[in-house]
Amino acid sequence: MSEQIKFFKYQGAGNDFILIDNRKGTFARNNEALIKKLCDRKFGIGADGLMLLQDTKNFDFEMVYYNADGREGSMCGNGGRCIVAFARDLGIVSQKTDFLAVDGPHHADIKANQVNLQMIDVDQIDKDGTAYVLHTGSPHYVQTVHHLAEMDVYNEGYAIRNNSTYSQEGINVNFVEKEDNGYFVRTFERGVEDETLACGTGATAAAIAMAIAEEREGEIEIPIRVLGGQLYISFVKQGNSFTNVHLKGPADYVFNGLV
Hints:
With 259 residues, the chain is of the alpha+beta class. The chain contains 4 helices and 17 strands.
């Protein structure tokens, strides 16, 4: 491969992504080996995932998301917030945007480095023992624990993600502990196959699960602390139906280069 690719690096609460402006369609969408290499922290740029920003009809842009393993992934919340910041920095949008992702249309507002991203509505929440299982753009398993700071999240999460129930499709595993005014969440992410510093769809799933556990109703905002920073999840809860779901937090440009 002789041609150079211009890339941009962004991070949202420590979830880091390679972003490529692919409005001209020059980056091959199906090159899994290249995407995996670019995301490799030893042999490439290093990232939790890679995103292509593409032109699409009726929306400001399309977000195409790949996991670090090179395969096209499900919705990534922090990735969604980062690509909104990227679109603003490219001059495609200013303070509001409507864009298309793998799970449908998303609206977002952006002020300085804070992006408030609308997520999909959620109305199906299942239980697996004491854990909650739900889909917030990606599938999530949410378990409350004690002493989360000391927990071996990699091995505990790996075991659940690879058990007989979830091994084929994979699932993101979130461990949650109550704090002063919100929750502390740590996540083992499928596709990355490791703990990440933040997971936006995971923070969203954790907040929804805790609202059910605490039998809260109405308009709710829940602060979620992750290893990489602070996120805020808001929604309207009526029974087990969650609408107007938003994920808010930082999205920051890190550097750009040619590869």
